[in-house]
C-alpha cells in the first residue's frame, strides 16, 4: 500500500483552490469544475481538494448539516494492487467499511472507503479501472 494523495474535503472548493494555487504556489495538476475536484503536484504525494458535498455522496456520509465537527475533513488515499483483495483481507481483520469495492468510471478507478479508529476516512483505490 502506498500513500499517494491527501484529499482535503472542503465547504468552499473555489476558495481552497485559490489558496493552494496562488498563496501556497503548488502547481495545479487537475481541475474538474463539474466534480469540484482539483489536484496539486507537491512531490510524491499530491494534495487534492474535493467538495465536501461531492465526496460525502461517494463515501456515503449523509450528514451535510452545519454540524461540521461530525464530518470528515480529509481523506487519506492509498494505491493498492487489488482493491477487492485488500477489502477482503482488512474485513477479516475486523475493519468496518463505509462501502463495498465499486467502480468510479469518472475517476477511472476501483475504490473502497473505510474509517480508522479515530474516524478518519481512508480510500483504497486502483487505477486504471
From TrEMBL:
CDD domains: VOC_like. Keywords: Metal-binding. This is VOC family protein. It comes from Paenibacillus contaminans. GO terms for biological process: L-methylmalonyl-CoA metabolic process. The lineage of its organism: Bacteria, Bacillati, Bacillota, Bacilli, Bacillales. Gene3D superfamilies: 2,3-Dihydroxybiphenyl 1,2-Dioxygenase, domain 1. GO terms for molecular function: metal ion binding; methylmalonyl-CoA epimerase activity. Residues 2-127 form the VOC domain. It holds the Pfam family Glyoxalase. InterPro entries: Glyas_Bleomycin-R_OHBP_Dase, Glyas_Fos-R_dOase_dom, MMCE/EMCE_epimerase, VOC_core.
